[in-house]
Specification:
The chain is globular. It starts with 13 loop residues before the first helix and ends with a strand. Among the domains are: 40 residues, no CATH class; 174 residues, Pectate Lyase C-like (3 Solenoid), CATH 2.160.20. It has 396 residues and is mostly loops. The chain is 10% helix and 6% strand. Strands 1-2 form a two-stranded parallel sheet.
Length: 396
């Protein structure tokens, strides 16, 4: 490779990568007390996309660093300072993060399976906390299966859609944390603090339900009601749709209780209702083109005859819901047929749902729970079914 050229795979120049490797070697000497070593300081550096698996970065400085998509699998980041760092989509499987300072960190979509975060600090940073600006630590969709989180400080963390299967949270502080559509099956919750935490749409097993009850909390959780404002909000959204956005206001809700609401026959195109309780709600004949209902609890909701083309239902709980005669087509973004936007049901829970839709065109069902759904192989032909349990689905 010609000197100075960027490696298109990593997005970095080879000289920069060589400098990173030198800094890592010097840090290794520093941690071992050897001559010529010095502490690594990658604060605010861009190390995104680099392959740094099994490196030793204990006590390293990585404040504000861009580490999105970086491979740290099996590395030692114990007691490292990662305040406000961006680790979205990073590979942290089996990584040692014991005692690491992760205040205000972004870990959205990161894979932390088997990682050790015992005693790690993932609180929201604040003006009185070392001058760290306030930002909620984000672990949305993070994979934390079997992770060790004993004694971790997780106050106010956003764990929406995170997978904590068989994780150990003994003594962890989850005060004020957001636990919506979070998978807590098999998790150890001994002496966990949940004061002020938001619980909704959790995936739980019998033992975990009993443990949450023992801690004095409702496993189903409770979101604030919004029933009084709904008619006005729907009228504003109607004006927004009819005027192409020049009048009215888009329906945009987050973490509210709209259970058993009736949206039948309405045009909710482009609406955003996220992380909300919509159990038993009625959407019969409703237009939900390019709407976003991600992380919502939609158990036994009725979407029959509705248009869900391009609708996002990622990690939504649609157990027992009816999509009979519904339409799930691709939508060309901006009128460009080369940019089709499919209906997205990735990781959705559809156990026992009626998927005898009128039309399914290229919908995404990857990693969804399709146990016992009513559908046909012909109807789902062309859909993305990777990682599903369709082999157990009942053919309608």
């Amino acid at each position: 490779m010609v000197s100075g050229m960027v490696d298109h795979k990593t997005g970095h120049k080879p000289e920069f990568v060589a400098d990173v490797k030198k800094a890592l070697a010097a840090h290794g000497k520093w941690t071992q007390g050897q001559r010529g070593g010095h502490q690594a300081d990658f604060s605010f550096a861009d190390l995104s996309g680099l392959s740094l698996g099994r490196v030793g970065l204990s006590k390293a400085k990585l404040t504000g660093a861009c580490l999105a998509g970086t491979d740290f699998a099996g590395s030692d980041l114990s007691q490292a300072t990662l305040v406000m760092a961006d680790l979205a989509g990073a590979d942290l499987r089996g990584t040692n993060l014991m005692g690491a300072d992760l205040r205000g960190v972004r870990l959205n979509g990161a894979n932390l399976a088997d990682a050790n975060l015992a005693g790690a600090d993932l609180r929201m940073g604040g003006a009185g906390s070392g001058g760290v600006p306030g930002r909620r630590s984000e672990l949305v969709d993070a994979k934390l299966s079997r992770a060790m989180l004993m004694g971790s400080k997780l106050e106010n963390c956003d764990l929406t859609g995170a997978e904590l299967i068989d994780a150990d949270l003994t003594g962890a502080d989850l005060s004020g944390a957001i636990l919506v559509a979070t998978d807590l099956r098999g998790v150890t919750l001994t002496d966990v603090r949940l004061h002020g935490a938001v619980l909704s749409g959790l995936q739980l097993d019998t033992r975990t339900i009993a443990e949450i009850l023992r801690l004095g909390f409702d496993p189903k959780g409770k979101l604030p009601l919004l029933a009084v404002q709904v008619p006005q909000l729907l009228q504003q959204h109607k004006l927004w749709v009819e005027s192409g956005g020049s009048r009215g206001k888009r329906l945009d809700l987050d973490m509210v209780d709209l259970s058993a609401a009736d949206f039948s026959g309405r045009d909710l195109s482009g609406a955003r209702i996220l992380r909300s309780n919509l159990e038993g709600s009625r959407f019969r004949g409703t237009t939900l083109v390019l709407a976003d209902l991600s992380y919502c609890s939609l158990g036994k909701a009725d979407f029959s005859g509705g248009d869900l083309s391009g609708c996002v239902l990622r990690r939504a709980d649609l157990s027992g819901a009816s999509l009979k005669d519904a339409v799930l087509r691709r939508v060309p973004l901006g009128g460009d047929s080369d940019r089709p936007w499919p209906t997205n049901l990735q990781y959705a829970r559809l156990a026992g749902a009626d998927l005898s839709c009128a039309e399914v065109e290229g919908a995404i069902f990857s990693y969804a729970d399709l146990t016992g759904v009513r559908t046909s192989a012909a109807l789902l032909a062309g859909a993305d079914l990777r990682g599903t349990c369709l082999d157990r689905a009942a053919d309608a």
